Amino acid sequence: MADQAPTPVMTRGAAVSVALGSGFSGVSALVVQLLAARWLTKADNGEFLVFWSAVFACYAVLMGIQQEVVRGTATVVLDPSRARSRTMPVALGVGAVVAFGAGVTWPWWHEMVLPGRALVVAVVALVSLVAFSGHLAAQGALMGHRRWHIAAGLSAGEAAVRLVAVGVALLAAASVDMVEMAVVVSSAVWLVLLVWPAGRAAASARADVDARVLARQVAQASAATLGTAVLVVGFPTVMRVTVDAQTWKTSAPLVLAIMLTRAGLLMPIQAFQGAVVSYFLDPARPRAASLVRLSALVMAVSVVLAGLAGLLGPWLLGLLRPDYVLSGRLLAALTLAAGVMGLLAVFGSAALAVGRHGAYAAGWLTAAGVAWVTLLVTWHLLGLGLEVCSVGALVVGPAAGMVVHVVAVRQALAHRPPVRPEG
Questions:
Q1: Nearest by Cα to 409 from 340, 358, 338, 342
Q2: What are the residue ranges of helices labelled H in 40-86?
Q3: Cβ(267)–Cβ(28) under 8 Å?
Q4: What share of the chain is helix, strand, coil (3-state, %, to 5)?
Q5: Judging by beta carbons within 10 Å of its beta carbon (0-12, 13-18, 19+), is residue 178 exposed, middle or buried?
Q6: Which of 4-13, 177-186, 273-282, 312-321 has the highest average model confidence (pLDDT)?
Q7: Taken in order 376, 381, 387, 393, is the CA torsion positive or negative?
Q8: pLDDT classification of 224: cutoffs 50, 70, 90
Q9: Contact at 8 Å (CB) between 181 and 124?
Q10: Backbone angles phi, psi at 332, to 5 degrees
Q11: Beta-carbon neighbour count of residue 27 at 10 Å?
């Protein structure tokens, strides 16, 4: 009698649940930035966007925690005898190291990121890095244990708390300090999960390697997400240190457009990366075919969104702020650039799934480095406008990084053929 085909790691219902949760996360981030642009003065909003960029760049660096926890706990689910270290202490330790590093380097960045801000804003932001590390570990363990609906709820819940907190602060006409602190309070929402058995199981989940190896793998993935941080949410900060002060004063509409086009497409992709790793490891699906389908989906969505951005974007910006004027062509180009970066994220997740951690890191760091060099060359040497420089950097950089990922995945698939059901 033939063996039954393996049960898929992710059912269609679970995929829909994760997509809805991560989609809500992206939409809520977009709404927060729109609310800030509407309620804050142009000067205050410029400072808020830099704070947002810096904080979420740090969060992006920590995404390596979720990726490794998904991989390690999913492996233990398939073979419980391989259970080794607990994932939560390692995650919190990584978060503490990042927060400590940011605190030590305070003299070099606080005037750019938090000019004139109270010290309490920086302290709250640094504490949130540790809390968000716990959030990523809990969510990663839920995904690894195939508790997809709870993982989706956690993602949506964290985003919802941030949206409500920032909305209340803006409606109360709070200072920019309070609005910025409202952004990071949601990092501790995952602690509510400890009330339920599934949450406690996620907090005590084990990976398939000891703590030292897990920490090293998280560090490798986090080094790669340094590139993610620069490209996805940290690019406005890179722009600020590249261009002159006079240009920066008039760049708020472009900065907002860059962040909004990424919030609409890339934040869901980032939240969905753990699911992509599990999906690619699913023995019920051919790996290469899965990668092609995911890539086609990302590009199809980005093309549709680019069309909408080109047609409706200028009008919507005008409704938000009459003094925020950008062309439809620019908004469409920025959205397509986000799609290229989305492909980089998909192929990077595939590289992680086949164990090519070094190539994953190299791809993202290559993308970030090439993007910054492109921005520097086009701005300082070619003298092009900031809009053209930004679009060029956000396309050329991710394309270069994607080449690194594609080569690594092809090599891995050539040496490790996909698992097929036995007949």
A1: 358
A2: 42-61, 63-78
A3: no
A4: 85, 0, 15
A5: middle
A6: 177-186
A7: negative
A8: low
A9: yes
A10: -65, -40
A11: 17
pLDDT tens, position by position, 142-154 = 998 889 889 989 9
Tens of pLDDT, residue by residue over 303-337, are: 998 999 999 989 988 888 888 889 999 999 999 99
Residue 298: the pLDDT is 84
CA 410/CA 325 separation, integer angstroms: 44
Q: What are the residues whose beta carbons fall under 8 Å from the beta carbon of 124, sequence distance 6 or more?
A: 181, 184, 185
Closest CA to 229 of 380, 98, 386, 93: 98
Tokens of 231: 């490209």
Cβ 135 vs Cβ 158: under 8 Å: yes
SS3 per-residue string spanning 121-185:
HHHHHHHHHHHHHHHHHHHHHHHHCCCHHHHHHHHHHHHHHHHHHHHHHHHCCCCHHHHHHHHHH
Question: How far apart (Å, rounded) are the C-alpha atoms in residues 388 and 410?
Answer: 33
DSSP state letter for 385: -
Strand partners, 86: 206
pTM (two decimals): 0.77
What does the DSSP assignment read for 202-231? HHT-B-SS-HHHHHHHHHHHHHHHHHHHHH
Residue type, 172: A
Instruction: Quote the mean pLDDT of the chain.
Output: 84
Please tell me whether residue 86 adopts helix, strand or coil conformation: strand
CA distance 11 to 289: 17
Contact 265, 342 (CB under 8 A): yes
How far is CA 39 from each of CA 28, 42, 54, 322, rounded to the nearest angstrom? Answer: 16, 9, 21, 13
CA 421 to CA 423: how far, in whole Å?
Answer: 6
Name the DSSP class of 173.
Answer: T
279: Cβ–Cβ under 8 A, 6 or more apart, which residues?
9, 10, 15, 285, 290, 294
